Amino acid sequence: MSNIRGRLWPQVVHSGQKATIRVENLPASARQVAAVISGTDNLETSWRMDCPLELVGNGSAYAQIEIPRQTRETALFVSSVWLDSERLDLPNISVCICDPIRPLGRSDPEVVARYADIQKSQYERYGVPLGDPTVPGSSHYRIACIVQGLLLTTQMRLPGIRVFGIEARPSGADAEQLVNSAIAQLGWSAQPLQPGWAEAFGRHQPVSVFAFENVFAESIELAMQICTEARDNLLSILSVNRGASGRPVVTCVEQLQDGETIASKFRFEQSTYRGNLIGGILAGENQSQLVLQQTALNHDPLLKLCLDLFREAQADPSPDARYFRLWSALETLAIGRIEAGRPVTRLDGTPWPGNLDSSKAAPRVYQLIAGRLFRSTMPIDEQSMVHPAPDLASAVTHWYARRNATAHYGRFMVGDPDQMARNWYRKALATVAPQGDPDEWLMAFERICADVLRAEMYRVGTLLVP
C-alpha cells in the first residue's frame, strides 16, 4: 500500500483549466477508487475535495477534472486515496501550482521551490509567538484550552493559535453521580443505564482544543491572560461561524526551558461561585418572596428580560461586558417604568447637573434606583451602598461611562487616544481596579442592580398575589 502514488498534471495550471489525476500501484483487489485532492496557499492550511477515479488496469486509475477557481496562488496535490471504503494517506506527494503569482517553469525543482515558498509564507503568518520574547524576564510557555460544546472537523490556524476537534467525548460520569444522588434524596426509583447514558451524553458534547504553542510572558498569570483574551475572541467568531458558542472547561499550561517542560499547571474554567454561602430567609431563600417573584416574572415580560440580562452579566467573565449588560438591565427597566421628560432631583435635594431630565439615560436610571431603593419606606445608607463612589449620582455616571466605553469601542482601553477625547473617559478610568485588587465599582453596580430587580419583583408580585 505504501507504494501507491498519485499526481496532478500539468504541474502548472490555472483556475478553470482541465487537469489529469493519475493514481498508480493500486492493489488488484481495488474496486472503487477516489483521489483526495488537497490545496494550500498562504492563508489556507489545507482544503480537500474527493474525486472519483476510473480504473484503467495495471493498478492505475485516472480522471480529468476542472480546477476549481482559486483566490490565491495554490499548491495542489493528491494527499490520499479512497480504496473502497478505506482512506489511505500517501507518504509521498507530487505538487502542482495553480495560478502562480509570477512566472513559473514546469520542472520539478521549480515547482517544489514554489511550494516551499508557500509553506514559508504560511509559517511566517501562523508561526509567530504570542507575547514578546524580547522583554527581559519573559519565560516560554505553551497553553492548551479544552472547549466543550464546539464541533470542529477541520484544523484551522490563526497567528500563534491552532484549533482542532478531538474524537474524545465526556462520558457524563459526574452528571450520572449527581443524578443518582438527587434521585436517592427524592426517594425515586429511576436509574441511568449504561452504556446508553454515556453515549447519549457524549453525542451532544463535542470537544475542541485551542492550542497556543509559543507564548512569551513575564509570569504564568500574564501568559494565561494573553491566551484567554485570544481564546475568547476566537470563541466569539466561531459562535457565528459554527452556530455554537463553546464553553472552556480546562486550561493546561506548561513552562518550557530549552525545549523541556519545567513546570505545569491546570486551571478549571468553570466560574467560581460568587453567591451566598449562608442559607435562610436573609440570604435569598425566602419561600413567600419566591412565590411573589415567580408571579411577577410570569406576568411581566419586560421584567423577565431585565432579569435575563442580569443573569447573563453574572455569567460573563468580561468586566466590560458585565458593565454593558448590567446597565442594559437597568436602563431597559427604567424606560418602561420612568416617564420621559420629568425633572430629576438627587437624594440631597439638588437638581441633576445641567437640569437634565428623565429623557436622558443616566438621570433616568438614577431616578429608577433612587425610587426603588433609597426613597422607599426602609431607610438605606446611600454612601455605604454605592462605595467606592461618594453618592448614588456619582456612581451612576461612573457606571454609565463604562457602559459607553463598551458600547462605542467594544471595551474600555486605558490610554486609548480616541477614548481619552470623550467626556466620560476620566470617570471610566476611575473605575479601573489595580491589578489583583477587588473590582469594587463593578461589585457595587451588580449589588445595586440586584436590589433594584428584587424590589421591582416584590412591587409587581404583591399586586398579583392575594
Report on the structure:
The chain is α+β, with helices and mostly antiparallel strands and 466 residues long. It folds into 3 domains: 5-126, Immunoglobulin-like (Sandwich); 139-169 and 205-268, no CATH class; 281-464, no CATH class. It is built from 13 helices and 15 strands. The strands form 2 sheets. Strands 1, 2, 3, 4, 5, 6, 7, 8 and 9 form a 9-stranded mixed beta sheet that branches. Strands 11-12-13-10-14-15 form a 6-stranded antiparallel beta sheet, covered by helices on one side. A hairpin with a 2-residue loop joins strand 14 and strand 15 (260-268). The protein is elongated and about 95 Å long. The model has no long low-confidence stretch (mean pLDDT 92).
Helical content stands at 25-40%
Radius of gyration: 31 Å
- Rounded mean pLDDT is 92
How much beta, percentage-wise?
Answer: 15-25%
Globally, the shape reads elongated
Distance between the termini: 81 Å
Low-confidence stretches: none
- What is the string of helix and strand elements? EEEEEEEEEHEEEHHEHEEHHHHHHHHH
Structural class: alpha+beta
- How many E strands? 15
| Count of discrete structural domains | 3
How many helices does DSSP assign? 13
Sheet having the most strands: 9 strands, mixed
List keywords for this structure.
466 residues, Immunoglobulin-like, nine-stranded mixed β-sheet, 39% helix, 23% strand
Brief synopsis:
Helices cover 39% and strands 23% of the residues. The protein has 13 helices and 15 strands. A hairpin with a 2-residue loop joins strand 7 and strand 8.
